[in-house]
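Friendly challenge for the regulars: who can give me the structure tokens for this chain first? No prize, just bragging rights.
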Amino acid sequence: YDPVTPVDFGVPCPKCQGKQIDRNTGIPAIFSEADMSKFDFNQYEEKNSPLEKLAGSFWKKYDRWEEKNKGLYLWSSTKGSGKTFLACCLAVSVQVKHRKKIRFVSTPEYLEKVAESYKRDQTQQDILYAYRNCDLLVLDDFGSEKRGEWQNQELFKLIDYRLNNGKPIIVTANYEIADLKCDGRIIERLNKMCLPIHFPEVSIRQRKANEENKKFIQEILR
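First reply, four minutes later:
Bragging rights claimed.
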């Protein structure tokens, strides 16, 4: 209700009991409506894949995953296979069902924020705090970042902190963990923290683009 005039505008949500859900998650605008009801596993031809079962377990039984500090490493060499979308769907569903604080950031963007933090006054807010301390972090496009000593060091510090503090991560990448060109300590920790899932090597993004273009052509030529 309006605190000035006692007029009812709605009723508390029966699921969250009126508790506010954090919308400042970093999830890209194109995935703003993402949740597991939006992800279609039937778009992949591969049968009996562990993808759907593990994804379902992750968001439905997240407390058990969190207790063991286990996350997911979603990878395929094909770009546009749906890794990022699934990661967003999982994170949002965990947020809503289990009332967890989530954050999404691409690896290059995270490193940009680290570089920015070096320039900030020490009295200013720590802009990296949320990525270290949120309940669930989605680290997108891992392995695409510029490689160097300080980049490796900062990624190691982030992943090591989350490992030591029992805070799971979801990582998306175009390479298997063993093929990542990064500090071996990072690979060791990703192997410990994440269950790797190989996505089918098909570009769902390209398929949808082709379907949209075909539909548009049919509409304008009527």
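The chain has eight helices and five strands. The radius of gyration is 20 Å. Your move, everyone else.
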